[in-house]
Structures are given as C-alpha cells and as structure tokens.
Automatic annotation (TrEMBL), chain A:
It is found in: Cytoplasm. This is Thiazole synthase. It comes from Nannocystis pusilla. Residues 10-252 form the Thiazole synthase ThiG domain. The keyword Repeat does not apply. Belongs to the ThiG family. Its main location: cytoplasm. It is an enzyme of class 2 (transferase).
UniProtKB/TrEMBL annotation, chain B:
It comes from Nannocystis pusilla. This is Sulfur carrier protein ThiS. InterPro entries: Beta-grasp_dom_sf (IPR012675), Mopterin_synth/thiamin_S_b (IPR016155), Thi_S (IPR010035), ThiS/MoaD-like (IPR003749). NCBIfam families: thiS. PANTHER family: SULFUR CARRIER PROTEIN THIS (PTHR34472). Gene3D superfamilies: 3.10.20.30. It comes from the Bacteria.
Amino acid sequence: MSDTHDTWTLAGRTLTSRLIIGTGKYKDADETRACLAASGAEIVTVALRRVDLKVKDNLLSWIDRGRYTLLPNTAGCYTADEAVRTLRLARELGIAELVKLEVIGDPRTLLPDNEETLKAAKILLDEGFVVLPYCTDDPIVCRKLEAMGCAAVMPLAAPIGSGLGIRNPHNIRLIIEQAKIPVIVDAGVGTASDAAIAMELGCTAVLMNTAVAHAQVPVLMAEAMRDGIVAGRKAFRAGRMPARVVGSASSPTTGMIE
Amino acid sequence: MPTLVLNGEPHPFTPGTTVGALVASLGLDPRQVAVERNREIVPRATYDQTELVDGDRLEVVTFVGGG
C-alpha cells in the first residue's frame, strides 16, 4: 500500500509529511538546510527574537518559503501576554496565521503552564490566529483547547530537549481517542523509535528539534526520524498483532519427521 | 540629540527620523523585520510616516532558528 495517499489536514492545508521540525540548535544555516531537506518536513518552526545586527544571513533570506510553511513559536514566553505579543509581531512579519503557542511555566523543566496557555489561546483565536498549542500530556487540557477552537493539540512526550521519549503513552492514547483534531506530539522525542512509537499510538504527526540537531550526525538523524515516522504510521495503519505472553509457532506444527 | 531605546540599548537619532529611515540605517531589509514602538506594532506600510520621538522604546525583531 502506497503512502502517497496517506495525507493529513491541518487548518485546510493538505500535508504528506508527518514530521514537523525545528530550525534551532544547528551548527549553522547549511546544516539546518540539509537537515530540513533530509527530514522531508513541510512545516518548520521558527522563533522570534530581537534582530542581531552582527548576523547578516537572516533566516528569512535563506529558507525556502515555497517549500516550507513557517510555524512561528513563542519559545521563552512565561505569560499569556508575552506569547500574544510575540505572535502579533510574528504576524506582522508576513507569516500566515498558523502559530505554535507555548507558554512555559518553569525554567528548569520547561514544562508548559496550561492556565496561561488557555488564556493566550483564547485571545489568539479571537484575533483570527490558527493556534497549535503545546501543552502537557493531559487529556483534560487537550479537550479544553480543542473546544476553544485550536487547530490541533500538541501534548509533550517529555520535557523540551530532554530526549526521554514518550513518558506517558496511556495519556497520549486517551488524548488521541477523544480528539477530532490532529494530535501532534511535541517535545521530548530522543530517537527514531520514540517517533515511531508516537505514530504507532495513532498520533497525527510529531514535532521535534533537539533530537535531530544534537544527534552526532544530524542529517542522518533527520532521515532516521523521517523513516521512523513513516514506519510507525504504516504500523498503526496496518494494525499490530495482539501481544501474548506465551509463544505461538510460526512454522507448521504438523508433518514433522519422526 | 534625542535618544530612543532600541532593543534595550540607548540609540541617539536625528530629529525627524522615521521608523523606515531607522530600519534602513541599521542595514535591515524591512521585509525581514517587525517593529514595535512603545509596545504597539508599527505596520510596515506606515514606517515612512512614523517619526521617532525622544524616549521611544523600540523592539525590532525577526525570525531565528527555534523549535
């Protein structure tokens, strides 16, 4: 069965790749570009910061905006007000209404502040943004974000940049069961099997950055993630065999020589 | 000379300087930045009509790599 028809839809966009990748933490622009290409991603996240007058190669001057949809984030924001202010500026930069909302609650764990996230989501939705909120792997907060009108929910696998993989697959499963919008696991993926597990659970897509950027060979990991996501998705669609605690012979049990 | 606060740093400017002129003087492509003046966004279309005032606080931002 070909994967070419296994598309998904996000706020009216039809997408083939189920990997959304960040553009941070790479060695340089060349490495970023190579990893984005190897990942096959169609959506890439970007952050908004004060201009650095010493840096001449602005991301917007080298990124192929025909190929990638830019998804501005609110990384580093600790309140709803900061997040909303950041995304209003991002919109002024001429990027579409699609935004990644993340409001952090603690500098050590970088875990999200769900209360501030809900507050910011409400304001942004009222202002016409298409909101993709990063949140804890909590089915209740995901349900609330969906009811408000968010275009997807993005529960974490584990803390940002931790590489711990999916800490609570049962919660992710509950979130998927109830959601009528895409469920995108965001943050905490460490290696390709983590991404594959997310897809096997039934996630729509996976968003990651550090797992690729901080691999020993980032461009190879970008490919591994692409393949892991494709494999996990196929396994989900195929439907796994039931697990059992005892063996079940694969070869005929009759016709044995005596 | 009047001075504004540009991205947190004092920045003297000639009276009558507009946001557009400031962005150009910094060597920035206006399509690659967004400007907030005293916490209000300055729409790009109004850069050349918006004159800076002593004490203005400006944030000039762009996109960088991020997750």
